[in-house]
2-dehydropantoate 2-reductase (Comamonas faecalis), 343 residues
Amino acid sequence: MCPSHIAGIGGDNDRFIERTREPTAMTATAHDTYSSDRLRFAVMGAGSVGCYFGTLLARAGHQVTLIGRPAHVQAIQARGLRLQTATEDIHVPISASTDPAAITGADVVLLSVKSTDTESAARQIQPHLGAHTLVLTLQNGVDNDERVRSVLGPRQPVGAAVVYVATAMAGPGHVRHYGRGDLLLPPSPVSERLVRELAAAGIPAQVSSNVRGALWSKLVINCAYNALSAIVQKPYGWLVQQDGALQLIDNLVAECLAVAQAEGVEMADDIHAAVQGIAASMPGQLSSTAQDLARGHPSEIEHLNGHIVRRGAALSVATPVNQAMLVLVRMLETLRPEAASRP
Ligand SMILES: NC(=O)C1=CN([C@@H]2O[C@H](COP(=O)(O)OP(=O)(O)OC[C@H]3O[C@@H](n4cnc5c(N)ncnc54)[C@H](OP(=O)(O)O)[C@@H]3O)[C@@H](O)[C@H]2O)C=CC1
Ligand SMILES: CC(C)(CO)C(=O)C(=O)O
């Protein structure tokens, strides 16, 4: 389901970008310094977020390699990546591979797997990273950068970005964009340059000294709505009209804020306004957790309400309402179609 508030779905005005460049695999170079030309990117996890940002960067002339699953890679190799937005529908030639070794030579790796796959993705790229290569997590959840660091070690540059976008894969090699598309980046030696080059590619970005607070704000929003929307398979506008739902959401938010405070997080936004704003601005939207459950995919719940419950337990903050959401979604996950068909 698309976030109908943000933008209409792009019309089918099939506008194709000419194949001015053949897709090229990233070439192995002595990769201990940033490229003096445009930064070279790799995307680990060519799903909707990675394909969206990767496509804009490739269109702007950056060398970009997508690492993804075979069906997406085959489609991208055959036809380029199809990006459909409210205003355009384009195919962009872009290098794609199923082999993580193809990231060799990247200055920046955009890690855009789901939070459930963070460590395994980090392990797969590790042998192919340059000493200077920045691994930037483009994920929901507040500890992906730490988890990547725990695999790659303290010497590898690693940072978390906050991703404000609404995208979905519509089919192999076909990404749909529904709204926004901006990034908040952590300070790093390459961040100012990244901001400039991202802007030139049509990706608004800012450097923030409080990415953690912004990630936590997103986490609180996710904890407020995602499980609830998943459990009843209903969009946010419907949820908030149900008797008692606003109180339940308030209770979820209060627990999250108590954990955040105990963690010493400086929240980046007026969180109550942000939580209310979601139902008002995305009334027709189902949460990503609801969509994952509906498709029989594992959800990121362990990194949303699950994170609050684990950190709450460690910090002696009670989180019974988040725990209820977590346990209910876990139960629904065990009932998902493929799980049910397993012996
Ligand atoms: N979509 C959105 O609008 C937004 C998403 N986010 C966050 O961004 C992150 C990415 O989300 P999204 O792009 O929607 O997720 P997707 O599931 O669309 O993309 C992740 C892709 O990575 C693939 N993948 C996982 N592990 C590997 C691997 N080792 N090698 C190759 N490919 C791999 C997955 O394949 P498979 O499914 O087969 O495992 C999947 O195709 C999430 O944390 C999400 O919460 C944040 C803001 C908005
Ligand atoms: C902001 C929100 C709640 C929008 O659906 C989201 O991030 C999600 O579904 O995971």
